[in-house]
């Protein structure tokens, strides 16, 4: 295979604004600092993988506005192959305002989701067939479904970082091998807040491995063998933006390495936790040495659930 992971999904420019605390409605506050970064569930996960030594190609699109060159330059700098991506003339790139509350360690996001995407007929079938894994975020609906079908026919492992509920999930999930989602997705999609019941219900719909993340409550990993829970690593959290994306990237790294599921879950949890100690999703990414050191020195509570 030519690529470890081919990714298809949303790419946005995040404007990170650090505040001492979120102001009340119709009030003003001072900005501590601000910065621009390229984000999105799939490209962020792929940057994690690229920095850990994996070969990745991104299938996405951006506009010819002021943010388009920033996106293209950033992803190329991170060594993602962009041969199957496109600049779409006359369109706007994805954009998000991210207000980070330093005191509460929370963030509030207002985003513009692109209205123009790669269409199913735009997909490069060969690049998907050359991957070990295909990583999706569910957008755009028809293109993701077509990519998943191409991948499954070629024996490529199909992965999804669900994030929030999107149109067509019920059609896409049966094509998945691996699925990651936040706990709120269970309420949105399955109308349950029961993690154990929700994780098992997702397994029944097709995926062979499901992970559910829940911030300070840790993460769960489900397979036919059972369920594992890893408690959250206690860290001084500054910025949770992109933590789920980083978790997905680290999860895929562990699966590509063919590690035991206990180590896969620990690795993903630690990587996401270390990212939260710093601002953003680029400078904040821990190195492999930092992750391994934390795995060796930090106490991680891992439990097998019935």
Automatic annotation (TrEMBL):
Keywords annotated in UniProt: Kinase, Transferase
Domain Carbohydrate kinase PfkB: 30-286
EC number: 2.7.1.92
A Pfam family the protein falls into: PfkB
Example of a GO MF term: 5-dehydro-2-deoxygluconokinase activity
Cross-referenced InterPro entries: Carboh/pur_kinase_PfkB_CS, Ketohexokinase-related, PfkB_dom, Ribokinase-like
Record protein name field: 5-dehydro-2-deoxygluconokinase
Protein species of origin: Gimesia chilikensis
Source organism phylogeny: Bacteria, Pseudomonadati, Planctomycetota, Planctomycetia, Planctomycetales
Gene behind the chain: iolC_2
């Amino acid at each position: 295979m030519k690529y470890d992971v081919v990714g298809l999904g949303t790419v946005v420019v995040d404007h990170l604004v650090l505040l001492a605390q979120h102001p009340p409605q119709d009030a003003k506050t001072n900005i501590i600092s601000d910065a621009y970064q390229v984000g999105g569930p799939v490209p962020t996960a792929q940057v994690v993988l690229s920095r850990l030594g994996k070969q990745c190609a991104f299938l996405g699109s951006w506009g010819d506005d002021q943010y388009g060159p920033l996106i293209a330059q950033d992803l190329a700098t991170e060594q993602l192959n962009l041969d199957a991506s496109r600049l779409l003339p006359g369109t706007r790139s994805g954009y998000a305002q991210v207000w980070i509350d330093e005191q509460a360690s929370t963030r509030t996001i207002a985003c513009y989701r692109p209205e123009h995407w790669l269409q199913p007929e735009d997909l490069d079938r060969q690049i998907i067939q050359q991957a070990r894994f295909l990583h999706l975020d569910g957008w755009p609906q028809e293109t993701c479904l077509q990519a998943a079908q191409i991948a499954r026919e070629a024996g490529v492992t199909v992965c999804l970082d669900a994030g929030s509920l999107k149109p067509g999930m019920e059609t896409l999930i049966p094509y998945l091998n691996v699925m990651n989602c936040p706990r709120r997705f269970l309420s949105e999609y399955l109308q349950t807040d029961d993690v154990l019941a929700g994780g098992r219900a997702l397994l029944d719909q097709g995926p062979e491995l499901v992970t559910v993340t829940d911030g300070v409550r840790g993460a769960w990993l489900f397979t036919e063998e059972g369920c594992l829970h890893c408690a959250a690593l206690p860290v001084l959290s500054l910025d949770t933006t992109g933590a789920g994306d980083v978790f997905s990237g680290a999860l895929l790294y562990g699966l590509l390495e063919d590690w035991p599921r206990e180590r896969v879950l620990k690795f993903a949890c630690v990587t996401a936790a270390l990212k939260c100690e710093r601002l953003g999703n680029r400078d904040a990414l821990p190195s492999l040495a930092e992750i391994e050191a934390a795995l060796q020195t930090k106490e991680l509570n891992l439990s097998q659930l019935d």
